[in-house]
Amino acid sequence: MATGSWCEVRRCGETRWASILRKFEKRKEKERKGKKRCFLSTNFRSIPTIFKMESIHNADHVIEKFFKCYTTVTRTDCDELAASLVGGPVTPVAIQGGVSYTLAGGSEEDKIVQFRPESSKLDMENMELARSIHGDWVADCKLCGTIGSGSSLLLVYVIQRLHGVTYFENEDFKDGSSDVLLRRSNTIRDLAIFFAQSWTHKQERPEHIIRELRRDREHKLDVLIKHMPSRFTGLLKMLREEMDSLFVSPYPLVLTHDDPCKMNILIDPNTGRITGIIDWADPSIEPFGFALWGLENLLGYEDDLGWHYYSESDDLRKLFWVTFEDKVGSITNAEIHNIQVARMLGIALGYGISWRHRKESKPITEASSSMEYLDAFCLQTPWVLTELYPSR
Fold it and tell me: Following DSSP, what letter does each residue of 101-116 receive, concatenated?
């Protein structure tokens, strides 16, 4: 079973979840008047938890920080409500998000219960859209109510638990055996299908929304041009000159996962086939290609010496594009060029803007570990798309 934050949501009406929530609130009121409380056992493991693997910390610490920063609702209250919702014991998942508290339970541990502050509530419409586009790779999920009140209010989601393990957990980055290569190839092939599904589900947006989106991306890119090291200046200025074509029809705007990293891709550990894409906390509508840095992320690994591409990374990259074209049909040269611009722009903005200060468009510094990714993805990989696209 996979662990982590599953954030795909569908609307639910007055169902048994609402009834359970009402019964839970009544029981809590009785307990506050002196009745015996029930405490649940937990099981913790220390594992990597944040994007770019910048640090490793204990899940218990992450959970403690969540309750300290986001709510006065107690952890025990959440545990007991989660147990009521799934009808049995619950256990915190090993990989906890920074702005959520997530538990697993159910008769076969096939359910996830997640608590999120209102400031990090899920976009219901986009979550439904993700499932309609990507099918069973996106988990079914229901918003079941709230716990707490005021600034301490938490939204409560019950989510289908997808099978598989994260790509990161199953990565044999120093193993070049044929079995490992086959698993990697299967993952890359399925990832190409995932992106092809986005390409074939173009999203329409009003012109004023598209203009706002373009202006925001232009502003962020201007910040990078001004503040990033000079070795990136030529590339960034080129992207600035070329990016307008990404926001003009017929180039597709698509639903875009904001963090398609190794921790958010679930695979069958035996075959490498993708079983799910998780953590749809903040999807957005972007020109196709902004999330293609997720492909680069699967073509190598990071250790104490920095980023390294697998020896077969070029073959895997070609496999991706062959599969992609097979699924979407013929692609024009103009579309190929735009895909490459979008790909590089997504890499530049995704790694060049501080992950913790995205709203302020604050760029990273030379000391940031993200700079290693920018050096690898922007300066070491092919820039001319015909080098990536083997049929041209």
Answer: EEEEESTTS-EEEEEE
